[in-house]
Amino acid sequence: MPRGGGARGGGFRGGGFGGGGFRGGSASFRMGGSRASGTPFGRTGAQRVTSRSPSGPYRHSSYRPHRRYYGYGYRPWYYRWWYNPWWSGRWYRPWYYSPAYVGGGITIAIVLGLILLPLVGVAFWFPFSSADTDGTVNYRSTETLYFNEYWYEYENIKDGNDITYSIQSSPSLISFAIWDRPFEDLETTTRIGNDIDQHILINNQYEYISYYLKPGSSITYDYNASSQIDFFIASGQALYDWNLGGSPSFFVEESSVIQGSGVYNILSAMDYYLVWFNDGLSTVTVNFTINYSAVGVINLAAADFYVEGVNTITQDTFTVPNDGNWYFFVYFDPMRSPEESTTITFDVTYDTGITSVDRWIDVQPILITIIVVVGVIIVVALLARRGQKKLKSKSSSKVAPAKVPEIKSKKTTSTCIRCNASIRADAKFCPSCGGKVEGRITGTPTIVTPAKSKSCSFCGSKLLVDDKFCKWCGTKVESEKINLSKN
């Protein structure tokens, strides 16, 4: 959004930009505020801090491995931390369910990639970068830069190789630099400047001059008018609202004055507009002197090569003097152009001097280290699964048999006290005479079990062939002779 408007367009001065218009008329101002620190922001590869929800198998408590309490502390599955089934698998499941094997395909994919990728890469001369086999990298793009931002690309380049570049910017002026250090390492400086000029204002007309300043800067103003005017210092948004007829707050406001002077100390990084407005009927002449101190101005002088305040850079070549990462910067300096944004088109070619073979040689130690680590993980997983099976078999063998409740009997003898017949340990009545083992007197039963019966007619208990009485209830079993006599 270009600054200025109305009857007159904006123009560049010693350190600021002038413009004007008629109140209530068409006008626009750079209202986009800078970041609080006033620090330029890198468009490519800039350091950003993001927050996101955790991911992976432990992102929720319900996914955590089960732990049991053994009285002296929490110990994971199978008593050993290295037997964790999340990576080694459970001993009783097939091996392919384990993440350390084929389950999920993660480890196998890594191993196959580490083995096959170098072979395929060497075969096709793929150097793990955007460079070709000879080490040439080209960046060609069209991007939008907002004021106080910069764009950069970089590559590792060997001593004596070239960077070929060309840049176009529209509509704003930009600064360009080549350096072997990041943009953040550039020092800042304090720029001192002044503007001495004159405004002629007709009825309902205003004129302004603006500066982009950061905290710690200051503006000193002094003006004289031939008739009464209004003077104020405002932000871009406040000036825009005022031009539409509003009554916003200003940093400095002086109404119906002929002259004025003062100092305003900057507290926030933004554009500051010094405005003179004639709301009378007669024409007014205003003479002014503005002195400013701008701190935190980016100083490109430390760069190996730089150009400031241009909109076109024809193709040229820079030869790097030493090995290392070499940066290509395009900076939209808000003190050199009044626009909100600009479009840059650049073509940068890096002749790195590092071929694909060199890149593979450099990466070999890393690949070997990763392969060794993955191999160790798989071996440990195999040993862990074997250990799980051994622990399982040991724990099964140590399980004590269930105790059978002991039936205590008042009589411990194994023979009947009446007929001396042999009695089984679990019998309650003597199978020979029918006497109760506990010694109670047995009356004459009213129910008799027929001979050769397999179960007692009274209680249904199983009988042996030679039993004469039921060992559980004492019911008499007819003998075969008695049964025959009845027939």
Task: Report on this structure.
The protein has 487 residues and is of the alpha+beta class. The chain folds into three domains: 1-41 and 148-354, Jelly Rolls, CATH 2.60.120; 66-126 and 358-395; 411-487, no CATH class. Helix content is 16%, strand content 34%. It contains five helices and 22 strands. Strands 3, 4, 13, 14, 15, 16, 17 and 18 form an eight-stranded antiparallel β-sheet that branches. Strands 6-10-21-12-19 form a five-stranded mixed β-sheet, with no helix packed on it. Strand 7 (68-69) and strand 8 (74-75) form a beta hairpin. The longest helix is centred in the last third of the chain and has 42 residues, at 356-397. The radius of gyration is 49 Å and the shape is elongated. Mean pLDDT is 76; it is low at 1-10, 45-74 and 407-412.
List the helices and strands and how they pair.
Layout: E1 4-5, E2 8-9, E3 11-12, E4 17-22, E5 27-28, E6 41-42, E7 68-69, E8 74-75, H1 85-88, H2 106-124, E9 136-146, E10 149-157, E11 162-170, E12 174-179, E13 188-201, E14 205-213, E15 218-234, H3 236-243, E16 252-265, E17 270-278, E18 284-298, E19 305-310, E20 312-319, E21 324-331, E22 341-351, H4 356-397, H5 480-486
Parallel strand pairs: 6-10
Antiparallel strand pairs: 1-2, 1-5, 3-4, 4-14, 7-8, 9-22, 10-21, 11-20, 11-22, 12-19, 12-21, 13-18, 14-17, 15-16, 15-17, 15-18
Helix pairs in contact: 2-4
